[in-house]
Amino acid sequence: MGRKPEYGNWVSKKFIYIPGVISLVLFGLALLVPSLVIPAGLFFLASLYFVYARYRFSPGGGNVQDQIRELVLAPLGWNGEGQALDIGCGNAALTIKLAHKYARARVIGIDYWGRKWEYSKSVCERNAKVEGVTERVTFQKASASALPFEDEYFDAVVSNLVFHEVNDVADKRALIREALRVVKKGGKFAFQDLFLLKRVYGSMDELMGTIRDWGIRKVEFFETKDSAFIPMPLKLPFMLGTIGLIIGEK
Fold it and tell me: Which of 66, 134, 150, 169 is least surrounded by CB atoms within 10 angstroms?
């Protein structure tokens, strides 16, 4: 059999193992202190929840995480001519999906990678090779807070669940503005992030108003959790409940 790309699972195994181990320890201690059976049960339920979430995100469980990536591209409305940028490409899953969908486009994926993540530039390049898009896709290390490109350089710019992770910018709206800076006039954009998390982005009405004040021609917002393919247990706020999609044309 041929090699397969390595896109991983958004639910790390540690989210299963850590509460699972804690629950076992607490259940053991509950033999001496019966009241500990309650927190033990809660940690056990947490472990089971993440087992379920990891399964639903996987290809065998519905591949919810891939369908969420597809949401970024589905409404983009781009003709596929020119260059596209994926901000925070991670392991290149969205970058490669973009290259497959727009066969005439050249795509650049940027990411800061680093020790916090299991992703790397070499993983991206390996995945691109396995997927057969190496001739049209390139990767480089860069931060979403200071994109190394001229103003209005790209015909389309996308990003998926990245902006809230950028630590060197307190006001995450600045990352949206930086992403829009490199979009050409008339170019398309689609950004998915925790836009419904008020402590990060404020109210949605204010955020959309701010984006329009930047001179953006068209902009719309959709709540990701409203998608029919997302099962109810995954719509909890700490999982997918605060994710939204901002799309438009500059």
Answer: 150
pLDDT score of 118: 74
Q: Which parts of the chain fold into alpha helices (H)?
A: 14-29, 37-57, 64-73, 93-101, 121-131, 173-181, 198-201, 204-213
Q: Which of 61, 84, 116 is the last residue of a domain?
A: 61
- Could you tell me if 104 and 227 lie in one domain? yes
- As given in the structure block, the two tokens for residue 66 are 């891939």
CA distance 65 to 86: 17
DSSP tag of 133? -
Is this model's pTM higher than 0.85 or not?
yes
Q: Looking at the structure, do residues 173 and 156 belong to the same domain, yes or no?
A: yes
Instruction: Flag whether 8 is in a domain.
Output: no
Range of the domain at 94: 64-249
d(CA 113, CA 88): 8
Model pLDDT for residues 81-118, shown as the tens digit of each residue:
999 999 999 999 999 999 999 999 999 999 998 776 67
Residue 72 sits in the same domain as residue 124: yes
Task: Give tens-digit pLDDT for 124-136.
Answer: 999 999 999 999 9
Distance CA 138, CA 133 (A): 9
CATH number of the domain to which 117 belongs: 3.40.50.150
Nearest to 242 by CA among 163, 140, 142, 143: 163
Domain identity same for 89 and 45? no
- DSSP letter string, 31-70: TT-GGGHHHHHHHHHHHHHHHHHHHHHSGGGT-HHHHHHH
Helix (H, G, I), strand (E, B) or coil at 163: helix
